[in-house]
Amino acid sequence: MSLSRAEVERIALLGRLQLSEAELAAMTEQLGQVIGYMDLLSELNTDDVEPMAHAVEISNVFRPDELTPSYDRSTMLARAPHADGEFYLVPAVLGD
Amino acid sequence: MSSLADRTATELLADLSSGRLTSVEVTQAFVDRIEAHDKKVGAFLRFDSLPALEQARQVDQRRRAGQPVGRLAGLPVAVKDLLCSRDEKTTCASRILADFVAPYDATVVARLKAADAVLIGRTNLDEFAMGGSTENSAFQKTRNPWDLERTPGGSSGGAAACVAASMAPLSIGTDTGGSIRQPAGLCGVTGLKPTYGRVSRFGLVAFASSLDQIGPLASNAQDAALLLEVIAGHDAYDSTSVDRPVPAYSQSVRQPLEGLTLGLVREHFGEGLNGEVEAAVRETVGVYRSLGAKVKDISLPHSKYGVAAYYIIAPSEASSNLARYDGVHYGYRTDEKAMQAELAAERQRFESAGNKRAIDEMDTPLVRLYRRSRAEGFGAEVKRRIILGTYALSAGYADKFYLKALKVRRLIRQDFDKAFQEVDLILGPVTTSPAFKIGEKVNDPLAMYLVDLYTVSANLAGIGGIAFPCGFSSGGLPIGVQLQAPPFEEDRLLRACHMYQQATEWHKRRPVL
């Protein structure tokens, strides 16, 4: 199976990437090959196999529910490209 | 000319402990090497001799005053630029984090500091550890010290190259699909990928969280043992780190293994394996036989599916992990005015064409901010993997790709479990061929992915592996061999590697720069 250019465009939006025309063309071709290679897996019957999401299959690791100090706001906001000392700033989200 | 930089970490540490050497002398020797050779090799993204020497002076002072010092006191260690170091840059070799200063220490970095290691510099990598040649770094290429026209492998290419070029005695790498073992093999050094959960991943910038592990690169097994002993262990900040005791690897490494049974995987010696690599690996088997090991032919029937499963699972996790780089919370952000102007021009174009549908489907300014910031901040390979992973997880494809890959992952793990009922360790090649040329595979992602053939299975299964030199090609390039062990048998890997290194000299060869 291969990948269409329109599909790559749709996925790029889902992945929050903007691709140039040249990138779109290259990506469609290269990922088409990669996904074609993945077809190899379809020759295996895995109907009765449990999926394995993790190598160490532990669950519910709890710690005591105690308050511990976190980083202060100024430390974290200092790393933001655009902030006002209290909030992260982004372009207006609601209509103009 | 013999220099302190040519000695092993274990030897240097003994002389530091006894007072025969000072950390300033040792650190200066490596600083000199870096200053002499790193312009050619490009292993370090950042290196500053002043803080390193200052740290060395402080350790010397405390040692002279008879105060307690840590287990690596005064020994230089290089760190891959993928681990957070408090109030220092942590770039992941990405433009998107070019100016990012970490607010905390990764647990491994904190442990190195507590052990009084001298943090000598930050090594280059493929952007976010995605790649096998270190060519995907946004900042510079690293060259293989054995042949400057060739790549050192990757993604821990800087970490391996700096040890090979005697620019650091010990080095921290990370391995998601072979990123410690493959560059170790291609650069002729010893590199160990621990069992998943052996070393805390806290503060390691995530690529594929169910596969990533941090591990040591060094000149030999003994030195790797020394570093692993310091970084391994449970950490409350990483709930996937496993709470079990850390053996004294640096002590036990010297004890040879008795009654060792090695497995040779039939599927590893098939089509595509370079003849010189195969010969060197088979000679390694001969060395182990002469040391009393038994050898059995075994099968890992699902190994040929490893690369396909890996390149679904790893990009899927990556696409999710990398969603955090949004141009809002930290890191690079696109020029907002230019972004707004771009949107306005688009709208005008659609309006004059009367294309109402296109206007309705236009990105909002916030979505465009994300998309442009990420488009400008990420390199080509990272983008490829985000697209690939997003695709494999998207509606309609998740069962066919992601779920299928997780099932194959279990089959791969079951193959190993079965094999380890018969053998103590699995021996095989690290890569199909010695180091490849810079630029050779950059336009062929699938060929680049297939380089990971022998290494990805250990990450999928979560087991440990060690790579070390076992010969040289006719062109003078190192050839690596890999041992793999059942979970939490790092001790067995290190001891087996040490046995071999006691009987051979390959690991002592160093390139002429």
How would you describe this structure to a colleague?
The complex is a heterodimer of chains A (96) and B (513). With 96 residues, chain A is mostly helical. Chain A is 34% helix and 0% strand. Chain A is built from three helices and no strands. Chain A has helices at residues 5-14, 21-38, 73-77. The radius of gyration of chain A is 23 Å and the shape is flat. The model of chain A has no long low-confidence stretch (mean pLDDT 92). Chain B is α/β, with parallel strands linked by helices and 513 residues long. Helix content of chain B is 41%, strand content 12%. Chain B contains 18 helices and eleven strands. Chain B has helices spanning 9-18, 23-41, 49-64, 107-114, 157-164, 181-187, 221-231, 249-252, 275-290, 306-321, 336-352, 356-360, 365-377, 380-393, 399-419, 445-450, 456-461, 490-503; strands spanning 44-46, 76-80, 118-123, 170-175, 190-193, 213-218, 261-265, 294-298, 425-429, 464-472, 478-485. An eleven-stranded mixed β-sheet of chain B has the order 1-3-2-4-6-5-10-11-9-7-8, with helices on both faces. In chain B, helix 4 (107-114) links the parallel strand 2 and strand 3. In chain B, helix 7 runs antiparallel to helix 18 and helix 10 (306-321) packs across helix 14 (380-393). The mean pLDDT of chain B is 97. The interface between A and B is large, with 49 and 74 residues.
**Helix-residue proportion of chain B:** 40-55%
**Strand percentage of chain A:** under 5%
Structural class of chain B: alpha/beta
Largest sheet of chain A: none
Spans of at least 5 consecutive residues with low confidence of chain B: none
> What structural category arises from helix and sheet content of chain A?
mainly alpha
